[in-house]
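We modelled each protein-ligand pair independently. The example shown here corresponds to the zinc ion entry; the chain sequence is given first, followed by the ligand as SMILES.
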Amino acid sequence: MKKVLCLLIVFLIGVQVWAAKDFVPAELDVVYPRKTIVTIKSPSTFFVGSTDPDLPLTINGKPVTVRPSGAFARQVPLNNGKNVFTLVSGTQKAVYIIDRPIPVSASRAKPVFSGYEQPLAVLTTKDNTALRSTPVNAGINRIAHYQKHTPLLVDGHQGDFFRVRLAPDQTAWVFKGDVGVNEGEVGPAALKKQEQADNREFYIFNFEFDRKLPYVIQENPFQVTFYGVSGLDTYTFTPKIPTQKLTGYSGNFHGNKFVLKIRKEVNGAKVLNGTKCLKGMKIAIDAGHGGSESGAIGCFRDLEKNINLYIAKYLEAELLARGADVVMTRHGDSYMGLCERVDAANEKDAVVLVSIHANSLPDNSDPNTHRGTSVYYYYDQAKPLAQSILTAMTTQLGLPDDGVRQASFALTRNTQAVTVLVETAYMINPYDIELLRNKRFQLSAAKAIADGITNYLNK
Ligand SMILES: [Zn+2]
């Protein structure tokens, strides 16, 4: 009997070791840099990947820490010209040649403005075309975003930008690559009709023009200005609505009709028997990336799009269990444009839109020192939701606080919903990636995000 028991124990230990070995990489697999011969302009880059944790790993003879899971990351400085790195893990070797081009010191001539004798009529050629206050691609200098086929008048250019003439005393800038010649009708557009058609959730203002025209929406005070209106030139509309905290809104052309929707005050979630209930609350969940767009690649070659979807699906289940009415921008591994994602949330009249992502880093950063959750918002009114989700993530999961930040992501703009983008943790941090690919962590992250949303809506 004793012998049988011993055999059983040996067998079980064997199975355990085998099972454990199954999850640990046996081979050196460098995920980044993606190729063995590359050009990188930064003063430093990093090696990220996995290997057998029982073997010492070195880069050019210097030891690299390998986590028990096998994950590793190491930042390396780059000299100008050719840099050779030899990675050795046991008997395996990988050689990388990274070329850092010598920085060109010649200062590029600053572009100068050149005006046109006659303004030129152009049309935006893409959705989400940014109208900017300065002729640079600086992210935060955005004034408006236009759909495809919005007519603009340009009166000159500077560098890569056309100057847009909005009104005699008001100009802005558009990237040359975002517009083409307008061969259609040009000139002022007549305002044919204006009406208010509120419903239970929204103040709705409809404007009918005889063609599309450029517009700018401003907050504090809230107003919409249309440019190039017949007889008026500039028409500014200030909605007469009860003073309230601004939550979500949207303003878009649908054909020649401009629809402005401003959300009435968000009803707080009801607290029932101590359990927080989101009964009837419309919440949109967006799993970042999908299909041909993989997002970041983790130390074990996990794809961000898949991790985002797992967490998004757990979040969906959690919110449904709390009584919310949930809309998912994608259910499977499919590609979806950023505007389509926003449209899906707006169509549903979602109160909150949360986009789930996992973070990565550019060259010249250290993947070992970047950890934890960060939450991004664009409109000021979304900042409290961002903070609420960050607090839940850091307190419930013990993740480092990587900050609440304002950034202009297409997904967080022009949404009726209060919108945030959650970077759950870092795909290329050796510790974070172990969490991200763990089902229990994915479930806990979903629960923390649900709590963040619930706490926000309860305020
Ligand atoms: Zn992402």
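Residues 288-289, 295, 304, 357 surround zinc ion (CB under 6 Å).
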